[in-house]
Amino acid sequence: MLRSARLAIALSLTFALPAPAAEWSRGREAPAPRSEVGVAETGGKAYVVGDYNGATELLIYDLAADSWREGAAFPYHVHHPMTVATGGLVYVFGGYRDGWTATADVHAYDPGTDRWSRRSAMPGERAAGGAALLEGRIHIVGGSHSGRGNSTGHLVYDPEKDRWSEAAALPTPRDHLSVQAVAGKLVAAGGRIDGESNRNLAVTEVYDPGADAWIKAPDMPTARSGTASAVIDGEMVVLGGESRSQTYGAVEAFDPVRNAWRKLPDLPTPRHGFGAAVRDGHLFTLVGSPKPGGDRSGRVEILKP
């Protein structure tokens, strides 16, 4: 009887233990610093494209091995592109070139051949927007034209047919926002108005492809722009960002099923203009600027939620 009581107490203590807290660790630094990049993951590797300060070499990070190598350089200097991987290819949409001239160009990188190829251009120039893969098509949402004025356009690209169409416009025009596909919908969070980081937004809007319509969701707790984002465990995680006077360490996760935000541990290195990728339950943050404006780094920090 005494033994049974002890066992019951031990079991109750075991099941009462709290879940392990999320924590950050450091990964291997990139071989060259970058900021204002596009990042996409395919085949267990993250591809870092573009750089505000002029670098064109493609940086490739092996998420499992925590190692870097270089790939074929992008055809020209670009910054603030939109980047998505699907079908084993990495697609790069628009961005700024020749300073702050937005482009409609689209390129695809094939890791198997280490080559870039051109695809059908977007119907209009676009930079600093959000991009995500939803139901086999790539959605380009928000962003700016040359001169950094905002676009409301919502473009949809079919990678198999190499064709473009349009969907319902984003209700709140903005750039430097985060966009991800979660639970069969698009979530657009944060950003800024007309490229001005002193006009940051917390607005969150959700797109239903079945209805071709956007609805308002609860605001992100921290208004910011220039964020990175990724999807893990059914939540969209938005990291970092900047304003005119600071960079942010905030990490906040949106659950579209509960229609609610929650806070996660802050980034060890607050920064903006960076990207994120997920593998085996770990969230990797890659490169970015630790200061507002045009700084850069090779920083890699990894979150285990």
From TrEMBL:
Entries under SUPFAM superfamilies matching the protein: Kelch motif (SSF117281)
What parts of the sequence cross the membrane? Answer: none
Signal sequence span is: 1-21
Enumerate the UniProt keywords alphabetically. Signal
Entry protein name: N-acetylneuraminate epimerase
The source organism is Methylobacterium jeotgali
